[in-house]
Amino acid sequence: MPPAIARSVASLRSLVAGWRAAGERVALVPTMGALHRGHITLVEAVRQHCRRVVVSIFVNPLQFAPGSDFNRYPRSFETDCRQVDAAGGDAVFAPSVEEMYPAGFATEVRVAGLTETLCGPFRPGHFDGVATVVAKLFIQCGCDLAAFGEKDYQQLQVVRRMATDLDLPLTILGVPTVREPDGLALSSRNAYLSPAERAIAPRLYAIMQQAAAALEAGATAAGAEAMARKALKDAGFNPVEYVELVDAESLARLDRLRGQARLAVAAWLGQTRLIDNIPVPSAR
């Protein structure tokens, strides 16, 4: 049976209520559509924990800055629904902007600290938009579990903090980044890359691995980050917004490798902003 399509909060809650009455656990996979293998991996991951899976598809205007790519963000609803069906999803929640943010909407969810590093300074307001929409999705769905990819690691940590601080009764599952055979992290925005840029893009991951190896060998964070910045620029990435070694939980910058750490990068290739991160020591 194909997944049910819920366009309103009321219809989503009606579906979930039926599952709840049957004693079934419910998982949510929040997406902005343009689904790829990374999203399907999230569906497969939550399937191991919950009988029912809802995939939300909503391009959230609150997390796009004025003049950014909101209007050109890839949208492929019918194809997305077929992928959800093939992955075993039970429902697609696809609200309109008016359903999600009705007239008079005036509430914002903000997570301090975690949003002020890495992508935060380069995308003002972005994580406020993420926290607001995700909090609404959790409340609307009433899910037991929600999954997010580690590729957007800062987002994952922001959502975890938000759910903890607001006492939301669900588990947040982080799922390892899914990559192409050449190492490029899967992202809906990869569709923006020209063939020539797509050939260069895997260098991002390769350079991160080189920097991680230097850190494991005893290099300072400043030294490894400078090496990676130069290598990225030489490969054609411009500008390189950041290369930072951070604590895996707090995202605080580290001066050298210690404890649980992530190496995070954001850089532009042509008109496409690419982000990636790896744990250090990284699995290679």
Keywords, please?
6-stranded parallel beta sheet; single chain; 2 domains; 284 residues; alpha/beta; Pantoate--beta-alanine Ligase, Chain: A,domain 2; 3-stranded antiparallel beta sheet; 9 helices; Rossmann fold
Describe how the helices and strands are arranged:
Elements (H helix, E strand, L loop, with lengths): L3 E3 L2 H13 L4 E6 L5 H11 L4 E6 L19 H11 L3 E3 L3 H4 L25 H16 L3 E5 L3 H13 L5 E5 L19 H6 L2 H14 L4 H15 L4 E8 L13 E9 L2 E9 L4
Parallel strand pairs: 1-4, 2-3, 2-5, 3-4, 5-6
Antiparallel strand pairs: 7-8, 8-9
Task: Describe the fold and architecture.
With 284 residues, this protein is an alpha/beta fold. The protein has two domains: 172 residues, HUPs (Rossmann fold, 3-Layer(aba) Sandwich); 91 residues, Pantoate--beta-alanine Ligase, Chain: A,domain 2, CATH 3.30.1300.10. Helix content is 36%, strand content 19%. The strands form two sheets. The protein has a six-stranded parallel beta sheet with strand order 1-4-3-2-5-6, sandwiched between helices. Helix 8 packs antiparallel against helix 9. The longest helix is centred in the middle third of the chain and has 16 residues.
